[in-house]
Amino acid sequence: MQAEESTGGALRSQYQRTMLEVRGAFETGAAGSVTLAARTDAVDLLVIALWRRFAETHPKLTSGIALLAVGGYGRRELFPYSDIDLLFVLDAKTQEKDVKDCIRGIGQEMWDAGIRVSPATRKLAECERFSEDNAEFTLSLLDHRLLAGDANLYARLAGETVPKLIDRDRKGIQASLLELTRTRHEKYGDTLFHLEPNIKDCPGGLRDIHVCRWLRILDSSIAVDPDEAEFRQATEFMQLVRCFLHYRHDRDDNILDWQAQDAAAETGIGLNGRDTQRLDAAYWMRFYFRHARSIERNLKRIVEDLPAPKSAKRLLLRREKGLEPQAGFRLDRGRILLDPPVVSGYTVSGGRDAAHDPEIVLEVFASIARTGCRLGREAEERISQALPLLSANLEEGPALWRRLQAVLLGRYAGQALRAMHALGILELLIPEFHGIDALVIRDAYHRYTVDEHTFVLIDTLHGLEGAQTGPKAEWATRLGSLLRELPHASVLYLMALLHDTGKGRSTGDHAQESARMAQGLLARLELDPYESEMVTALIANHLEMSSALRRDIFDAETVRAFAGKVQTPELLRMLTLFTYADINAVHPDALTPWKAENLWRLYIATANYLDRSVDEERVGANEARDLVARVSALVPDQKENIAEFLEGFPERYVLTRSPEQIRTHFHMAERLDSDRVQLDFRYAPNVNELTVVTPDRALLFANMTGALAAWGMNIVTADAFSNRNGIVVDSFRFTDSFRTLEMNASEHERFVKSIYDVMSGATSVEKLLSGRRRGRRKAPKIEVTARVNFDEQASSHSTLLEVVAQDVPGLLRALSLTIAAQGHNIEVALIDTEGETAIDVFYLTHEDGKLEKKQQRALKAALLEAMAENAG
Questions:
Q1: Separation of alpha carbons 607 and 614, rounded Å
Q2: What is the chain's Cα-based Rg?
Q3: How far apart are the first and last CA of the chain?
Q4: Among residues 785, 207, 786, 197, which one has the least CA distance to residue 440?
Q5: How far apart are CA 157 and CA 141, in angstroms?
Q6: 203-234 pLDDT tens trace
Q7: Which of 336, 378, 385, 383 is nearest to 355 (CA)?
Q8: Helix pair angle (616-634, 593-610), 10° resolution
Q9: What is the pTM (predicted TM-score) of this model?
Q10: 390-428 confidence digits (pLDDT tens)
Q11: For residues 839 and 458, what is the distance between their CA atoms, to the nearest angstrom?
């Protein structure tokens, strides 16, 4: 036994020494494919040696069982920290129980060597069966090779079982593979242009390389791509980068985060001559996206050549009906094909190749925008090669604007624009767009590159045109009606295409730079002055509505100031639509119901102002009276008491609460005589809500934020109101950073009790905070410089304070304590977070009036000091 352990220890030591050598070779310049092969060889030696050792004492391993490498291991593509996929194949006579101990022993030895093993055991007959519920097993079996064991058994699997499986279930396997791929792509928004991509699973990543391989195994008739050399380069690049990530994190981590991008750029990973030149990370990422595009293009071309299923054929037929016959190209199975060039005789457009004719090429992309069909492979190649001729023959002015309009107004404009961008056509028409090609702007709030964000935004706008479903349906339906009413919709889409082009230049104010850059294109398109002015005004002010949403949108001054910037109802409608799509295009969760509701309310309030229907007080009073009646219907015989409870609350409280919520608050207020602290806690997996109803007193808001911080809760939004009788209704919506409440339902009661103890004075918030576990804070992805700004014009009765800072635990408590210490009162608090940036807005008064300049300066200094202490 001791000898066995010694032998096992020697094997493990040898493997670990080899891994150190492989890592050393990689760090001194070895290629990714070389590193993969070296680790595969090392694992092969270990596995085969272990098999032989166990076979010496277990005769059952000598026949009737074969040990196979499958999946990535079968392909000889073992990344530094990849799992090892082993398949033990048994013949009909061998029973699993007879070899179970050996299989477990081999796996244990490998685990002891630091290798994660994924073993599977199958009878030979089971390998022949395909199951849609476990398509992954069949796909792993497509990459198989013998490591040890019964060679005859393996010959049967390789020569009979797998070929039979493919012949019989080719369509089913193919369909499952494409569905798995579609689902995976959908998870990543169907785009490869992520700021921090998962290089294994994102579109254009390593998994797509495997899909290309599997599709070719399933169908040997698939033609070799003419860009195969480029595809091989992309494969080598991705392999190299994944090796780099594994070694950087010492684990199977495939996220190319910002820190990894910095390190990869610094050492020139994936470029000729590593360590020779330090690159900017954003520049290096463009190499990543170029290779990912190559992989994505290769996969799309393979899928394009596959026979379409019946459902897809029906869809293609419907789309083809929407395309009238055109000179120079035709539609075939959902692909747009250019007419073949003719050397002599009659050709389209007076004897020129269709790919050389700008009118035909632009009509091709307009057809893609109308139908959602794709450009055929040969058409792509011909158009790409024809760029110099297209540039020479391109006509600007109104004719080009008509062609561009046809693309922008099409239901599938995003798809058409992406195709134009990939081929260089978009930059040919709009050179200003080149600066944001695959541009990474480091912002923890955004998910996509600048160009892809633009396309997603345009997709979102067009998505408002159809029937709406899902959680955003209510807001999308409302905004869809605005879109259909626009007399100049093409102006909105052109503005959306150009709104971020200024980010490609380091001028600081990208909105103004984008507007300036747009003027050159508008002149070339010869838009009339009215439309040109709308485009530049929208671009220059495209952030204004998002900024206004961080103010008290129920304050007349906020509405007045915002209306002064949009000026006309049509610009307001366009900016509302744009802001909705812009927030939605940041990332899937950015547009919360709360933001959508406030966006709509701000639109309505500003539209009323612009229409000279400035009857806010009267409308507010009517809504309040109506709400009293609706709440009274829920609480019979309490109309006078409800009216008294509501008296003195700001209009914001009335308009942002449902009758049911107000009824709850009213009943909580009724119980204050018996208990001066009333809490209402609503748990939800995503965002929790806690409301406190209590008599007003000093440090109320600060103590509440401190109690939540002590539990590690991250406040998303908060507001505070009081009525004429000094009854406060403070509501906090927060996420559970450590999932304490989600993982431990029993903690809900203790959580509420601790909050109650702080609010009632039974426990000090300092004591609660002192017991909080203080782990090491994760380094922020983006360093946010703290800023404190005051605005005297935003409100008629309060001073607006805006604090922008790093979102760290305890920030809101530090701010509210400092405000209280200076003797100021928080009338309204609007708390928002964008990525790692906290944007907190407070409407402050001092002895019922606005803050004086001297008080503002003192408060600013105190706030900056408090934030520095809290962050340290």
A1: 10
A2: 32
A3: 56
A4: 197
A5: 10
A6: 999 999 999 999 999 998 887 776 788 999 99
A7: 383
A8: 140
A9: 0.73
A10: 988 888 888 999 999 999 999 999 999 999 999 999 999
A11: 27
